[in-house]
Amino acid sequence: RAMELSPNHFPAVRAAAVALGYLRYLRGGPGRGLELRQVRRARRQDIDGVGHKYYLELELGDVLDKDTSVTCTAEVLFHLGSTTSAPDVQVAVQGELRSTQEADQEFYNQIRSLEKELEAENIPDSDGNVPPGLEPIQLLALVASGYVGWQNSTENTHFNLAQVKHVKQVKRTDEDLQFDYVILLHEMVSQEVLPWQVTLLWHPQHGARVSHCHALG
Hints:
The protein is of the alpha+beta class. The chain has one domain (2-215): Nuclear Transport Factor 2, Chain: A (Roll). It has three helices and ten strands, in the order βαββββαβαββββ. The strands form two sheets. Strands 1-2-3-4-5 form a five-stranded antiparallel beta sheet. Strands 6-7-8-9-10 form a five-stranded antiparallel beta sheet.
């Protein structure tokens, strides 16, 4: 039997952050930044010998589209005593996020046509500003941070992307775009800021995948 939780209670919010990270990795891109608007409902089930399972109903939106929101149901299972295996996440999204097909293709073509590989640091800068041309790069960092957060979360953590410390595009022989990121993740429970190195591959038809990531220092 699952127990109702207050939607704004820490365990519910932390489980929601894992579901959001997973979805950002799955559905995010240079033209879409998923954000959590609200935890509508949360329940927790303690499964003997397995772990704690959260059932969530979330309202999500896109940072680039303030007027539209979608409903998402998610199940997040944290394995007992495990610090090595990622939580199991299942999600279903009801409603349509606006299409990014055109923006994706435009960004792809633009990066492919650069004479010199893109390189940038400190996004946003100390004043919180993101240069307009680098917004897609920051949104892709959100995808990368979503993956890291999902893979490394426990019931007692809550990861948030604080900043892109450094990003460098790497030329490839295949069709993918490759970005090597150093991102700073803010862990909201311990208040630590943790640097991670993440290699993200992205293609407008196939979406994103992380080919490598590890914590620095």
